[in-house]
Amino acid sequence: MPQSVTLYLEDPLLRSARAGAHNFIAHLVAVLEQAGYRVHFAATEEVASNDGLALTHMIPPPPGGLTFRRVYHYPFWAIEPSAERWAWDVAKEAYSPDLVPKTEADKFYERWQKRLFPTAEASRQNGFVYVPLQGRLLEHRSFQSCAPIDMLRATLNADPHRPVVAALHPKERYSDAEMEALTRLAHRSPMLTLRTGGMEDMLRDCDYIVTMNSAAAFNGMFFAKPSILFAKIDFHHVALHASPEELSAFREVSDHLPDYARYLWWFWQERAINAGRPDVHEKIRAALHRGGWSLPT
Known about the structure:
Strand content: 15-25%
CATH architecture of the largest domain: 3-Layer(aba) Sandwich
Radius of gyration: 21 Å
Number of domains: 2
Mean pLDDT: 96
Largest sheet: 6 strands, mixed
Number of helices: 11
CATH superfamily of the largest domain: Glycogen Phosphorylase B
Strand order of the largest sheet: 2-1-3-4-5-12
CATH topology of the largest domain: Rossmann fold
Order of helices and strands: EHHEEEEHHEHEHEHEHEEHHEH
């Protein structure tokens, strides 16, 4: 009897996958079935009772399982043993811009810049620091160099001459304690402004980005804006890094000008699975093999 694989998905992704309407999942299923597996779909809540091979979407997989996740934008995907992006294969890889074809990378970058962020062509520096906040502002988690509120304090101290715009994530629910801490800091720091959302405008107009590991920093590459990160993440290779004890990145950021076109080509075309390319099945098989699954080549 063929071995089975269960894909654990949340709605509406579960309905889309069952209907065969999700491009990447359809390719994933095709690869698994070609390898002799029977594929089943189940709701995410059922993953705790899994006793076979499993693939989850965006959440930690059970032992022996793998998780898959969009790599910031469609149609780019990753299949990994860990749901933590900073533990992904790409995060451990060395990046060398000299190995990336410049002309091809520039065309790729321009195409995706126009598709995702048409306003990026009007990118400018209006003299402020953009700090996209995420959640759990008062906690110092293991992958972070400090709590997000301390990152914000460090930014205000390290660059006292630029206004700092801290943007709350529109989908996060912040506690009263978090909002009180932010409000107190804004009252004491006239250079700090609080707002919600507005990522694209902020990326277009800021001088640079400071964040833990927000996807806004990844998107900032399309605006040619440098980032300072206070936490681990998969796209760390061309960012600067800081902690409250080490703030030299703030002195370096004005001269930090990586070739973002080359990096994005490497990150997406080389290290991710592009579900729109003819080699998508080959890339999926390679990712499953890296994750420890045995499939015929």
